[in-house]
Amino acid sequence: MKNIMIITSYFPPEIGAASNRIFHLAEGLQSDYNVTVVTPLPNYPTGKIFDAYKGKFKVKSQENNINIVRLWLYASKSKNKFVRLFAMLSYSMSLVWFFMWNKIPDKVIVQSPPLLVAFTCMLFLRSKKRKLILNVSDLWPSAGFELGALKQGFSYKLLQKLERFNYKSADLVLGQSNEILTHVGKITSKPELFLYRNYPNINRQNITETSLDNDTLKIVYAGLLGVAQGILKLCKELDYSNIELHIYGSGAEENDIKTFIENNKDLPVHFYGRVDRAELYSELKKYDIVIIPLLNRIYGSVPSKIFEYAKLGLPMLYFGGGEGEDVINENNLGWVAKAGDYSHLNSTIKSIEKEKLNVDLKQKIQQTAYKNFDFNTQLELLKREL
């Protein structure tokens, strides 16, 4: 059987869309390849090496028939850009060391971002005999600029050069949105382009009726509590006259959200922290509608939650703009509010009739998802490209 390597900065037991996406990709490729995943010692989103891996430089294991190599890095979630840079450099240095002492297969999938890690891989693994596949989930540095995390200047221009080098060095680019592929195509015509959505590979869930014991609309958010999601601002801007907000997850804004709730005990905002995926799926059934927000419209971004929640049969309220809006509207998955417009968000919420959030609607959403967002169909198409 042929060998393939996936190099990523995120992998289970870490949480989040990136780690889940790469895990499902690795698992799906097993029927045709011996799969090896190279990843850092788990540390995301806490910024600390998980207890089971502390004090180790390299950990090799086999999980779900996937060969996993976990390498050392300096873990941090510091907001200081130099500390973050050093953290990325540390993983890049570990990768170079790994490349020097290990045989690298003829096919390698590299996750981007982080740009610097992807650049390290594209630079050191270039070979006429090797096919480099760049899996682009977000457009950096432009996404960082739109989020306010980066400013234009010398460092921004340097990141743009790294970005262009990565695209031009790839033989195949996988983009999770059409906007990403359009962007890459404007920079270089060298790589083949393939739309590879973040479809989850999950077992079909039974649809249950939401409690209609009162007229209050129970809204739930589940996921990372980072800058991009803007959950703290959401808490501050919502009109709570006829809604409840329930929050699951962890991340950079977690403590600020807890403080907000503590200081506003009169508001129906509830925080439950991080729960494992199986428990989360069970919990989500309690609520009327899930909200998928982005602080700003990010070109190229289509949150993977859209596809995951659709397969669970959950009606969605999307508040992020861009291509995600098209996916929601074209597949009748829920409601869309204008990105960044909290007044429109509140008026959209008021327009939602709770009695219409019934089993029939949920079953229609789930049927659409399993028809249009099929993981295995997409995977088979990808295998032909590889």
From TrEMBL:
PANTHER family, alphabetized: SULFOQUINOVOSYL TRANSFERASE SQD2
Keywords per UniProt: Membrane, Transmembrane, Transmembrane helix
CDD domains the UniProt entry points to: GT4_WbuB-like
Domain Glycosyl transferase family residues, every copy: 230-371
TM segment ranges: 82-102
Protein name per Swiss-Prot or TrEMBL: Glycosyltransferase family 4 protein
Domain Glycosyltransferase subfamily 4-like N-terminal: 17-183
Organism, as annotated: Winogradskyella poriferorum
Phylogenetic placement of the source organism: Bacteria, Pseudomonadati, Bacteroidota, Flavobacteriia, Flavobacteriales
